[in-house]
């Protein structure tokens, strides 16, 4: 580590949005803080409502609750540090802190891919086998599916993070991103990373494409089943139960695919930062909004919850 141009790095510097004027960084801080608080409140509300309301105890809302937990974790890993770099210019992050951030970024990202596939399978069973749905998606089955969705994040995050941070780093410690993502940290390595890059590409393709193919298969079967329904009202009702999930899947996969699968010649650091914001900051805020606005049961449950919360006050007044 001490030979040549290699050095023992104890901390990294997140470049974040340091190239922008201070005034714009202040505006970004306020915008991201608002989105961050909205994300925490929106997803926390989804968790509380799906736990408390007896009408939202079906498997779909169990998986939605898992998604909200995941989105909160995803945000907590990235956004607080990003806000610190914007308002306090606290751009340094320790070696361990950087590795930890990357680990949980991979963990939550992989878990979300598989959880979205599980939610698609849930919709497939609900629409294609409605009579067997309560039997197939029993409490034991849904718990196993949830564990199976969260588990792949552990080996992927462990191998990729441990391997990357075992490399020696060059004298520079500046990460040209607002969080410790793999590609910008990898650029600081002073060693042959060809094998790691092959693993990272293959792993990313498998992690992204395997759930994506499962989602496509589920919705192909769902579409075929919906088209066979005799009434337009039945088709509309069946489709409405899937529309929220389809929108969430589209937002997540389009933004993440544009970030990691674009040619390097078209992938400047600044454009990657903007694309990364879409799935690390914006999408977690939009998910509870999408499910609240496009799902009548959730809207009714939220209304019941607010009425119950306000009822004691009204009685006192």
TrEMBL record:
Q: Cite the PROSITE patterns for this sequence.
A: G_PROTEIN_RECEP_F1_1, G_PROTEIN_RECEP_F1_2
Grouped into one coarse class, the protein's main location is: membrane
Q: How does it sit in the membrane?
A: Multi-pass membrane protein
Where do the TM regions start and end?
27-51, 63-83, 103-124, 145-165, 198-217, 238-254, 274-293
Keyword Cell membrane set for record = yes
Write out the annotated subcellular location. Answer: Cell membrane
Q: Which CDD domains match?
A: 7tmA_OR10A-like
Annotated GO CC locations: plasma membrane
The entry's keywords: Cell membrane, G-protein coupled receptor, Membrane, Olfaction, Receptor, Sensory transduction, Transducer, Transmembrane, Transmembrane helix
Sorted alphabetically, which Pfam families does this protein's record hold? 7tm_4
Instruction: Give the InterPro entries listed for this entry.
Output: GPCR_Rhodpsn (IPR000276), GPCR_Rhodpsn_7TM (IPR017452), Olfact_rcpt (IPR000725)
Q: This protein's superkingdom?
A: Eukaryota
Q: What Gene Ontology molecular-function terms does this entry list?
A: G protein-coupled receptor activity; olfactory receptor activity
Specify the G-protein coupled receptors family 1 profile domain's residue ranges.
42-291
Family per similarity comment: Belongs to the G-protein coupled receptor 1 family.
In Swiss-Prot or TrEMBL terms, this protein is called Olfactory receptor
What species is this protein from? Jaculus jaculus
Q: What is the lineage of its organism?
A: Eukaryota, Metazoa, Chordata, Craniata, Vertebrata
